[in-house]
Design a protein that fits this description.
alpha+beta, 3 helices, 3 strands
């Protein structure tokens, strides 16, 4: 599915790298979920929900771009990625 997702908070860019080497970047104004202090700060319990949401939106954008670049239908894309057509459709509804 996805090899790596990186976020450069200075430029507010998210980059997604697929296992086949294709990468896709987009702009997202997401604030880091940490506070710069001298002592440790406990993680925000809501942070994991935000991270999952960002992850799945990035995945949806990558799948859409993969379909566009390779001129694939949802069914063909699902087969290429080893997913069910229903799962690809479910992910794409996040956009």
């Amino acid at each position: 599915m996805v090899r790596r997702i990186t976020y450069a908070y200075q430029g507010e860019n998210i980059e997604v790298l697929l296992p086949n080497g294709v990468s896709f970047a987009f702009h997202a104004a997401v604030k880091p979920n940490y506070v710069r202090r001298t002592k440790r700060v406990k993680a925000n319990p809501e942070a994991s929900k935000i991270d999952k949401k960002t992850y799945y939106k990035a995945l949806a954008l990558q799948i859409r771009e993969y379909m566009r670049v390779n001129n694939l239908s949802q069914k063909e894309c699902a087969q290429a990625l080893g997913l069910s057509s229903a799962r690809v459709s479910q992910i794409l509804t996040l956009l």
